[in-house]
Amino acid sequence: MRVQARRVWGLHLGVLVGLGVLQFLLPPYHHGVVTRILLFGTYAVAYNLLLGYTGLLSLGHALYFAAGLYGAGLPVYYLGLDAVGAFFVGMLGSMAVAALLGIPALRTAGLAFSIVTLLFGQTGYLLTLYFNRITWADQGLTLPVQVPPPLRYNLALLLFGSALLGTLWLVRSPFGRVLMGLREHEERTHLLGYDPFLYRWTAHLLSGALSGAAGAAYALLFAYVGNAFASVLYSVYPLLWVLVGGAGTTLGPLLGVALVTYTVEAASGLLNAYLVVVGIALVLLIRAFPQGILGSLRDRRWRWLP
Amino acid sequence: MSAQLLTRREMLRTVGALVGASAFRLLAPYAYAGTAGQPPLRVGLQAHRTGIGAVYGKWYERTARAAVRTLNARGGIGGRPVQLVVEDDGTDPKRGIEVVEKLALQHRVDFIFGTLFSNVVVASAPRAAELKIPYLVVSEGYHVPSGRLNRWTFQPGITDVRSQVTAVAPWIVRNLGRRIAMIFPDYAFGYDHRDFFTAAARRLGAEIVALVPIPPTETSFTKYFPRIPRNVEVVYHVMVGPAVLTFVREMGEYFGRRRPQFFGFIDSLEGVDLASPGLEFLEGTYFWEALPRYAGQYDTPWERAFREAVGVDANGASKTDPRDVSTYSHMFGVWETLFVIKEIVERSGYRNRNLRDYRAFIETLEATERFEEGLGHPQGPKRFVGQIHQAFGQQFISRVEGRKLRVVHRTRIEDSLYPPEADYRRQSL
């Protein structure tokens, strides 16, 4: 057991060290691409907490990403708040939204949960339109912040590293075991004395806060706030990333984001209809690895993967 | 079958062809007048090949290619051949940022230009400034002249919405009526219309009786029209995106014969054939155009040369496919922007991607006050206000007659001016 724990932590720390070294090897353009992969990787980790470990399929997670984005961006733009303060405003704001919306949303389960979250997500998007005199809707706002690329990379890495190690610790903790118990067999877990609602609500809250942190970091590091990030597309992306990488695996989300990003990158260089190529590639991938890449690898070879 | 040997005549012909071909290959580099041996100047087009801006994007790209061909045939820029690099941004702000990085860092272009949709522009502009590369947009939005962007972002090839509505508002109020309802897309492009037309019309004593924003994802519009009071005198409409044809048709069905006057921005019908079924009701209504779509309405040698070079017929459609209607009132901006790059590169002595040369380019452009009408500026002369990085030009008002647009009024540059609210020149480079 202890050998396995060492192997697991070693793998995760190794990945983070690798990402740290990578920044010195990457050409400038890819340096920027990987910075974004780390930010959206954080968002995917947050999503995976809900989908992969708790078994809840949300279709409105863009709401939390956008809550962080606007929560951090608007105070910087209108009130001149400093970036560090803004980051926490964004994250806590998103956490508050998740805490509140979790109450009605988690009274449902399964498909109903997906639909309710989809509606919440769309409501968030429409609010950015409704308050267009503040948000500037689709056009969005340019923030008066500038972060040099090396710092940007390392801040993104710091955020991603905390998210990754945090989830790793969480899913190995008794709390995480209960979440997985709920995912596998709700009634049995309930019978053992665990309150399903409370555990799910907490997981939802953490996932919302972490999504918001990713959104806040995106706004501050790339100096832009706009409602494209509140659209349904950004609720579907994390689902795609997590399914490709492997739902219920800690490293799957990052792998998924990286793979999807670079498939788009490669295909767009080849032809105009690149999204068709991306779509076909992803369908083939899911056929070959029904549990996502890391999920399938865990089933077939490395049973110790968390 | 017998193996047939080459006859002497065939042999001579083959050898002659080979010699001719190799001579052509030797001479080919000299086909560009005076650009032989010079390193190319690379310009990057941030194109909307896919997404909501795809119709515009297709024509922006065709126009860019035509302008580059024309420039290269006439000696390139500063004696250097021009090379065009195109990257699709999917009309998406996140991808837009990536495209700016890719063009600047991977393709190592000298300038980035040609972006239309304001969400992509506003998201990309900070990255262009950070990477210290001039970013010349063709977007119409008020974001450039408002001072909300930065010193590296310019809009020298197309006028902005605020100047367009400032120029046409007096004509509308005087000729069409004073009780006006506005229908506009519920996104930033629509807000520029809402805010600046409302202000301009009220100054002229007109009354805005209804504001009807329409969400960007809407596909059916009938439910919005009842919000317009029946006693309205003018309906002012502007829409963009894939559903514009449905919008115009449903507007016709709703208002029927007893209708108010209509004034539209041609954006509602860019890329759409005015003779399309269902658009009959537009007969007798008015449109703003930046450059008249139908040939002969602004008849200058430069406009004819531009139309010919891009491959547009007399009805504003592609010469190879009459159903493929262009975005004629916008795409000239791409052409003009490339000629602005040419003029400023040559006047500033820009050579390489370094801060000193870029400074010379930016300061020369900021000091420029006029672009003369000519091959590089077929839409007409431009006044350039360096402090807000924005060009001002003439506008056209056209009436639909016999399913075509006939120009009834042309505004002067002075009609479109407004006091600048910013000064980019104070920002450091």
What is the compact description of this entry?
The complex is a heterodimer of chains A (306) and B (429). Chain A has 306 residues and is an all-alpha fold.
Give structural attributes.
heterodimer, A: 306 residues, mainly alpha, two-stranded antiparallel ribbon, 2 strands, 78% helix, B: 429 residues, alpha/beta, five-stranded parallel beta sheet, 15 strands, 36% helix, disordered N terminus
Distance between the termini of chain B: 77 Å
- The number of E-state strands of chain A comes to 2
Q: Let me know the largest β-sheet of chain B.
A: 7 strands, mixed
Strand order, largest beta sheet of chain A: 1-2
Main beta sheet of chain A, described?
Answer: 2 strands, antiparallel
Number of helices of chain B: 10
Radius of gyration over C-alpha positions of chain A, nearest whole angstrom:
19 Å
Class from secondary-structure proportions of chain B: alpha/beta
Describe the protein in words:
The complex is a heterodimer of chains A (306) and B (429). With 306 residues, chain A is mostly helical. Helix content of chain A is 78%, strand content 1%. Chain A has 14 helices and 2 strands. Chain A is globular and about 50 Å long. Chain B is an alpha/beta fold. Chain B is 36% helix and 17% strand. Chain B contains 10 helices and 15 strands. In chain B, strand 6 (179-185), helix 6 (188-203) and strand 7 form a beta-alpha-beta unit. Chain B is globular, with a radius of gyration of 24 Å. Mean pLDDT of chain B is 90; it is low at 1-6 and 18-33. The interface between A and B is medium-sized, with 29 and 34 residues.
Topology:
The complex is a heterodimer of chains A (306) and B (429).
Chain A: H1 2-25, H2 28-54, H3 62-79, H4 83-105, H5 111-130, H6 132-135, E1 141-142, H7 149-172, H8 174-184, H9 186-191, H10 196-222, E2 224-225, H11 233-245, H12 252-270, H13 274-288, H14 293-300
Antiparallel strand pairs in A: 1-2
Helix pairs in contact in A: 1-7, 2-7, 2-10, 2-11, 2-12, 3-4, 3-5, 3-10, 4-10, 7-8, 7-10, 8-10, 11-12, 12-13
Chain B: H1 8-27, E1 41-47, H2 54-73, E2 82-88, H3 93-106, E3 111-113, H4 118-130, E4 135-136, E5 153-154, H5 161-175, E6 179-185, H6 188-203, E7 207-214, E8 234-237, H7 244-255, E9 261-265, E10 286-289, H8 301-310, H9 328-348, H10 355-367, E11 370-371, E12 382-385, E13 390-393, E14 396-401, E15 404-410
Parallel strand pairs in B: 1-2, 1-3, 3-4, 4-5, 6-7, 6-8, 8-9, 9-10
Antiparallel strand pairs in B: 10-14, 11-12, 12-13, 14-15
